[in-house]
Amino acid sequence: MPPANPRPNKWPKTLTSDHLHRLVRAERDPRRALELFDAATAAAASAPDPIAPSPATVSLLTSRLASAGHLPLATSLLSRSRGLFPSAAELEAPFLTLLRAFSRTHRPLAALHLFRSAPSDLALPHSARIYTAVLAALVAHSQLHLARSLLADMRAAGFAPTAATYNVLLKAHCSDAATPIEDAVRIFRKIPKPDACSYNTIIDGLCRRGRLDEALELFSEMVGKRIAPTVVTYTTVIHWLAREGCFDDALKTFDEMGRRGISPNLVTYSSLIDGLCKGGRSTSALELLDRMIKEKLLPNTIVYSSVIDGLCKEHRLSEAMEVLDRMCLQGRKPDAGLFGKLIVGLCDAGRAVEAANYLDEMVLAGIEPNRLTWSLHSRINNTVLTALCTKGELGRAFQVYQSTRSRSISTEPTTFHLLVESFSKKNKLERAAHVVLDMLSERCIPERETWDVIISGYWGKKKVRQEAEEIWNQITVDLIT
């Protein structure tokens, strides 16, 4: 981080509130900005023509302190700034900034406490905007019982809910799975002038409860009332249409979105592409992928993963590999899950050696197992080993097995047995014995069938059989004599 701007040693004689605002805004370190603010206000207080910092400066500094996690300093600044303004009402803007900062840092109860203490500590009366901001903080962090209580206080204080308040309540009812969606619909119908946010919330709530038809009716109502749908509206509708398998309707809505001049975002594309791939419409998904790139909206790993998964399920493996190559060329790093989908698809298609090559590529890319992906890596490696043994590619199978062992990835008992059986049948008994010793070292006791396979392999060797017969004959002679 670049060093903070140095603190001036001497203030100009004509220090103005605009000058102070520029100085505070130019300082990168919020704590240093606070020191500068305090020094400037102290110098201004002793000047012949004292100046008062503007509410914008206090709001800016409060926001920066809060965003940097210095919430006590931000709260103290707001409290000290009460005497700098002709009217306490001018503190409302920075106060709202601080409330939202508490919400962003997941401290809704602290926001509620600040709200309760505002009249006494700041001489700042409550307003509909302040009530709404605290309601939003409580709802965002699932404190719904406190939100309902605060709403009752708001009404008792004589504040009628505004459109913003209704939207917060609407979100609370839609996000609470235990609350009947009919309650949310009733609140929606009480809004005197619902806006796009109101429609977005209730449409999403209905879709999440499986009531897509009602959501589509509200979408049509919204358009009919000339309330312009936003990218959020279209993305919600497209997502749920695709999820319900209404792919033609989803694509039609997507095209309508473009005709209205609303550009789809990454979430819009991701939702539609994922739905199309899961529904066996990978061709349409590929067309959308090309369109994204043409519009300079680079797909993320989730989008690429959806496309590759869809192509693999439709056995279009060559195209899946091309998409993976394109992804790498665009600087996106595949993860274990994405590699796994392609590797398993190749194994299912009997292309075991190619699957093993991609497994090597995954290792070379530095994609190592961790606590969360350990079982995934184990499943991928065991799948490749099984496919190689089934195809008779035992040399390659032993290479993959050794790589698996070197990375401490566990081998399943069934895979152990298959390796022993495959090596024994091909007279590669040393390798079979090596695998058995590895089994024993992991306390994976071989089944009787595994012992039978390797012993039969050794017994099949002429030299071993002759030596065994000689020993048996000698034992017989000794017993007789």
TrEMBL record:
Each PPR repeat, start to end: 127-161, 195-229, 230-264, 265-299, 300-334, 335-369, 412-446
Record keywords, A-Z: Repeat, Transit peptide
Superkingdom classification of source: Eukaryota
UniProt entry tagged with the keyword Lyase: no
UniProt keyword annotation of Transit peptide present: yes
Entry's family note: Belongs to the PPR family. P subfamily.
Identification of the protein by name: Pentatricopeptide repeat-containing protein
Classification of source organism: Eukaryota, Viridiplantae, Streptophyta, Embryophyta, Tracheophyta
